[in-house]
Amino acid sequence: MIAVRTFFPLTAAVLALSACGPKQEARKDLPPQTVTVATVQQHAMKGLLTASGRLIPREETAVVADVGGYRVAKVFVEEGAFVRQGQPLATLDGSLLAPQIEQLRATLAQQKVAAEQARDQAARVEGIDNQGVISGEAIAVRRFTARSSQASVAATQAQLNDLLVRQNHLVIRAPSDGLILERTVRPGDTSAVGTAMFRMARGGLIELYAELTEADVARIHAGDPAAVHLPSGRDLTGVVRLIGARVDNQTGLVIARIQLPRDPELRQGTFADARFTRTVTTRAVPEAAVHFDADGASVTVVGKDDRVKRVKVRTGLRGSGLVELVDGPPEGARIAVQGSAFTLDGDKVRIAGAGK
């Protein structure tokens, strides 16, 4: 038993060496893998960027009532209607307001007559102060009555003007041309100051809020064309109007606002896709040189000693058989293209065509 324990580890080691040794020696004896190489360099690439987002009004307007406490008599428009500036959207019941206006008008007429009489009486005592014709107290009373009557006329006129303004605002009108997005008022509702009755898109303009990464948004500019694909299958030609100034803290994305022509198929909240075609000069390598696996994209760099090393990269635009390297080897580095799939890090390779 002691002998067995003494020599068993040695026997296992011998067996392991006998199993691994020939394979390692066999790999060392293999000739270098032949590969073709390309250099990382600047290329003019016409690539395609894609993004998606929701359709949002370019400028949304809330239509509210300026007077509160009045019953809604009629509603003239529905969602989806395109309205013109000043067009009536709804009207409030002013039946209780009309008698108040008539009453104030009658009161104002009486006060104007009384004010005219008071002015006439005050005018009669002008220039007779301290002459003994009439007492100074009586003269002061006439003058005070004239001023008081005129003040009463002004106060009643102000009250009447207030009611007339309210009467004019009983008709809810569109503040601008636009598309009615939502109607929240019904006949019989009571108006409340500041509560939206309608929501509308000013000018009927709907935009696509396309979400892009920081790297992608740096490749587009205001004024660039964009092809917007709608859920219905239609394509519309849009223009990048504005690129957001901030990055969303949660998603890490930037909003690009794409202006679109007015179209009945553009509905607020709908998802749509945008495609941007850009020509840029950037670092790129042949598409065949980039490998993809569970760890992501990588390329095989060939060093000065013709030994290879796998390097992870981040890719960007694709087109014309090339792939942009957003992150990766610097310009001028040699990248294995054909044959690199059969190499391991540290292997020495033979460059196809070298020495010819």
Structure description:
With 356 residues, the chain is of the alpha+beta class. Helix content is 26%, strand content 37%. The chain has four helices and 22 strands. The strands form five sheets. A six-stranded antiparallel β-barrel has the order 3-11-14-13-12-15. Strands 2, 16, 17, 18 and 21 form a five-stranded antiparallel beta sheet that branches. Helix 2 packs antiparallel against helix 3. The radius of gyration is 43 Å and the shape is rod-shaped. It starts with a helix and ends in a 5-residue tail after the last strand. The N terminus is likely disordered.
Key words describing this protein structure:
single chain; 356 residues; alpha+beta; six-stranded antiparallel β-barrel; 4 helices; 22 strands; 26% helix; disordered N terminus
- Structural class, by secondary structure, is alpha+beta
Distance between the termini: 67 Å
- Return residue spans where pLDDT drops below 50 for at least 5 consecutive residues: 1-20
The string of secondary-structure elements, in order, is: HEEEEEEEHHEEEEHEEEEEEEEEEE
What amount of the residues lies in strands? Answer: 35-45%
Largest sheet: 6 strands, antiparallel, barrel
Oligomer: single chain
Q: What is the approximate shape?
A: rod-shaped
Please tell me how large the radius of gyration is. 43 Å
Strand order of the largest sheet: 3-11-14-13-12-15
Estimate the helix proportion, in percent.
25-40%
**Average residue pLDDT:** 85
Number of continuous helical runs: 4
